[in-house]
Structure formats: C-alpha cells, structure tokens
Amino acid sequence: MAFWDLLFTASIPVMEVLFVTALGAFIATERIGILSKEAIEYMNQVVFYVLNPALVGSKLADTITAARLVKMWFMPINILLTFFIGSALGWILIKLTRPPKHLRALILGVCSAGNLGNLLIIIVPAICEESNSPFGDSTTCSSYGLAYASLSMAMGAIYIWSYVYNIVRIASVSCAVEILGSPSMLEYNRDTPELLLSDSYAEPLLSSVSEVNADQFTLPSIRSDKNVKVKVPFSVKLKEFMLSVKVNVQRLLSPSICGAIVGFIIGLIPQIRKTVIGDSAPLRVIQNSADLVGEGAIPVLTLIIGGNLLKGLKGPQMQKSVIVGIMVVRYILLPLIGIAVVKGAHHIGFVHSDPLYQFVLMLQFALPPAANISTITQLFGAGASECSVIMLWTYAFASIAITLWATFYLWLVA
Q1: Which residue range(s) make up the domain with 342?
Q2: Sign of torsion, CA 165 168 171 172?
Q3: Among the listed residues 299, 298, 296, 273, the one whose alpha carbon sits nearest the alpha carbon of residue 286
Q4: How far apart are CA 156 and CA 406, in angstroms?
Q5: Exposed / middle / buried, residue 358 (Cβ in 10 Å: 0-12, 13-18, 19+)
Q6: Cα-Cα end-to-end distance for the chain
Q7: Residue 183 counted as domain residue
Q8: What is the CATH number of the domain that holds 46?
Q9: Beta partners for 369?
Q10: 87, 157, 232, 310: which has the fewest Cβ within 10 Å?
Q11: 234, 249, 264: which is the final residue of a domain?
C-alpha cells in the first residue's frame, strides 16, 4: 500500500475519537454547562462501577476462546512490559525533573499506563473495515481484531486497577499525612484510628492510619500540647507495617477486574459459553444486556476526556519539562522500544506471524495515557487538576502521534 493510503487508513479512527473528545470539551464549557464538574464526577462513578465492568466482561466473553487465548499468550506479557518499561522511564523522568512529591505517583501512572481500552476498541475494527486495509477480509479481521482489543482492554484494566490505582492511593495518603501531620490539622481517635480532616483538607479519600507505614510519623494525642507526642509501641508499629504491606483484596478486585474475571469464565468454559453466548443460547439475554450497557463506556469515557481536557486549560501551572518529558516517553521512547520488543519476540518465536496481531502489540506501546487515570485521581482527590493538564497536552498531540505510528506500524507488518 502507498504511504498516503496507509496514512488515511490510520487517521480515520483517530479522527473519530478526536471529534467525540471535542464534543465533550464543548458541552463542558461554562456557556453550555451540560458536563459540569459534578456531572463528570458522577459519570466517573458510573463508568467505574457499571460501564467499564460490563464492557470488559461482555467483550471478553464474546470474543475470547481457549484456542484464541493460546495464540495470544504473549499479549499479557507485552502489556506488562509496557507498564514496567514506562515506569522505569517515568522514574528516570522524575529524577531528571524533580517534580513535587505529590505528583510523582501521577507521573509514574501516565508514563506506564496507556489507553488500552476504548482507543483500541475503536481503532482496530475501524482499520479492518477500511477498503484499503492490509489485513485482508474485513469480517475475519474485525473478529480477530476485536478479540485482540478485548484482551488488551481486559489486561489493561487489571494492571491499571491493581498497579496505578494502588500507587496513587498510597501516595495520596502519604502526602496527606505529611501535610496534615501537625496537631492543628490532624487528630487521632484512639478508639477508631481514623484521620479526622478539616473541611479544607477533606478532598483525598483517606480511610485509616493502616494505609500508611506507622513508623513514618508520630501520632499526636487529642487535646495535647504540640510538644507532647504519643509513643507508639513496637508491636503496634509492626502491625501497622504488615497492614500497609498486605494487599487489600477488596481494592485489588475493582469492578473492572471482576468483570474481566467473569468474562474469562464465560468465554473459556465451553458449557457456560454455550449457555450465554450465541443466538440460540438460552441465557443470551444476559450477554445482550451486558453488551447494551458496556457499549456506553466508550462514548462516555471519551466525553469525560474532553471535559477533563477543558479543565486542563484552567489547571495549575506545571513544569514544562515534566509535560514534555511525559510526551517524549509516551510518543517517542515507548513506541521505538515497542518495535524492538515485538520484532524480537517474533524472531524468537513468541509471537506468530499474523500481521494484525503484531500491529496491535506494537500499537500498545504508542497510546496516550489511560483515561482511567483521571478517574483514579478524582476518586482520591490526588493530583486531579495536574492530571487534567497532562491529559490536555498528551491528547492534544495524540492524534498526530497515533496516526504517524499506526501508519509506520502498518508499513512494517503489511
């Protein structure tokens, strides 16, 4: 295929996302006022608890089979590599730019977690349906492309809500305790060990002192003098430390991860699959209902991105070096490393010769930060304004970066 044909094929799905994002920004303006701050917060809750789990579960159940999963065994490893390599590059960026402490977890998150969900679900099938697509028959291409995108979305959700969610949670609690550690701002209730925050500091969702390593701070007693501090016994410190290290299963099993687990169970167990999936399945109404709900996740998430981008225009000032560094990581270094990883895995024999499969694996390295990071920062009230600024600039350049990299990847595999 000629370069311009490849460029046109790659640009169409990106433009679709761009138009919906622009619509989200438009209805979030003060003059229109439909997508207000409160509306975005409520929509984030709906996406987190309802739409994302339904989308992940329904797509996995419909497209993932045991035979396909065997062929795609390298994809979870590939996505994990994007997180590890992105985190390493983010850590280097933090060392070079020295941002404020409360932004370090956010920088690690946006460097490691790409938008593996709605973008791939839109881009891959759209490329398959183009007449100039290099992947052959559109029906077969769409079927396999949807399976690749669904597994990518599921694994991305698992990694985001188990990795990024927890580093932002821990960082938000740690920073809040560091800020509120003086007796004038923080009280400690001996009977119920909770952090009692004043209204001006009530934004982060802090649950208990067990969220933080107890030996990092000394707890002031109620109505005590500023110079009088409570001595915490070693046994209490040890208990708090073990609680801080222990994985919180309730938080680890986020709704999206639960949806992925259900989708895998339905898709991989033939007896259950025949009962739920297919036109003649007796319980097909369950799958149809999940599909109906899940289809709303993509447009809603994209609209939220648009609303958050508008907030980024009014957001706080940030170091230009941090923003530029994040874009270098996401749009230059990671895509180049992705080519080496996928081509190396193919040379070794870990990746089969399907050009569509290789295209999706490489594209996973070239995506903008995950939209769910905005949801996570707003859930904890930790760096939400700064996240809007980062999303504004990364998504402003995403249409150009994704189009160019997608075109190059199409040329590599075609």
Answers
A1: 3-177+251-413
A2: negative
A3: 273
A4: 19
A5: buried
A6: 8
A7: no
A8: 1.20.1530
A9: 114
A10: 232
A11: 249
CA distance 319 to 362: 30
Amino acid residing at 152:
S
- Token pair belonging to 261: 């687990």
Collect contacts of 349-356 with beta carbons under 8 A, ≥24 apart.
Answer: 350/74, 351/74, 352/71, 354/71, 354/144, 355/134, 355/135, 355/413, 355/414, 356/124, 356/128, 356/135, 356/141, 356/144, 356/145, 356/148, 356/413
Same domain assignment for residues 197 and 332: no
Say if CB 389 and CB 316 are below 8 A apart: yes
Apex 129 CA angle, 128 and 134, nearest 5: 45
CA distance 339 to 362: 6
Q: How many CB atoms sit inside 10 A of residue 203's CB?
A: 15
Instruction: Give backbone dihedrals phi and psi of 114, rounded to 5 degrees, phi first.
Output: -95, 165
Q: Is 365 helix (H, G, I), strand (E, B) or coil?
A: coil
- The pLDDT of residue 169 is 76
Burial degree of 33 (CB within 10 A; 0-12, 13-18, 19+): exposed
Strand runs labelled E in 120-213: 186-188, 195-197
Q: Please give the average pLDDT of every successive group of 10 residues along the chain, which has 414 residues.
A: 67 79 86 84 85 85 84 91 93 90 85 83 79 76 81 83 79 62 41 35 34 39 48 64 54 74 89 88 90 86 79 73 92 94 92 88 91 76 76 84 88 84
Indicate the number of domains in the chain.
2
